[in-house]
Write a structure and sequence with these properties.
21% helix; alpha/beta; binds inosinic acid; 33% strand; 6-stranded mixed beta sheet
């Protein structure tokens, strides 16, 4: 699954991820439904796998929507520049919205997402991230649901990529360069 100089060390296995997602789904379900279906936003591409598993654990009426952002190139460092590559196809004014993200690292991407979605006047706006890497925080962002708080390591798999590879790996590993 790796190039010759890249090694993926196991970090979170599929059963750990599934157990944590079941618990996140219960927490989100417990809050209950508002006047209309919960708008669950998949932040492409990294959160597609997490999103697919999480929404199946949310026992509420939902509308599922997709938002594309791009912040990383081939490197493991954030450029800080966030670009919208695909906008929502639903008006979120007065709606309860849950953003589903793969990882919050510097927080720059989430801060950008919160700014653009808040400007559309939703009824409520919450954030669920599978991973949180607090060591590299550059801006504070409110995180309502966090799957795992992780060390300052570069992770791939389960939707997360390095140079567009590893997204299909069913578990999360730490990438190192031999
Ligand atoms: P932030 O803007 O620095 O918080 O980074 C957010 C985005 O960077 C995530 O949505 C990921 O796409 C990417 N990213 C950050 N850390 C990692 C990592 O360890 N592995 C893979 N992608 C990462």
């Amino acid at each position: 699954m790796s190039n010759s100089n890249e090694i993926m060390d196991p970090y979170l296995d599929a059963s750990q991820i599934a157990a944590r997602i079941a618990s996140l789904g219960r927490s989100i379900t417990e809050v209950g439904a508002g006047p209309s279906p919960l708008v669950v936003v998949c932040v492409l591409k990294g959160s597609f796998m997490f999103f697919a598993d999480l929404v199946r654990q949310i026992d509420l009426p939902t509308n599922l929507v997709f938002l594309g952002v791009s912040s990383y190139g081939g490197a493991t460092e954030s450029s800080g520049a966030v670009r919208l590559t695909h906008d929502l196809t639903l008006d979120i004014r007065d709606r309860d919205v849950l953003i589903v993200e793969d990882i919050v690292d510097t927080g720059l991407t989430m801060s950008y997402l919160l700014d653009i979605l808040r400007a559309r006047a939703p009824r409520s706006l919450r954030v669920c991230t599978l991973l949180h890497k607090p060591a590299r925080k550059r801006v504070d962002v409110p995180l309502d649901y966090v799957g795992f708080t992780i060390d300052d390591v570069f992770v791939v798999g389960y939707g997360l990529d390095y140079d567009e590879r590893y997204r299909n790996v069913p578990y999360i590993g730490v990438l190192r360069f031999a």
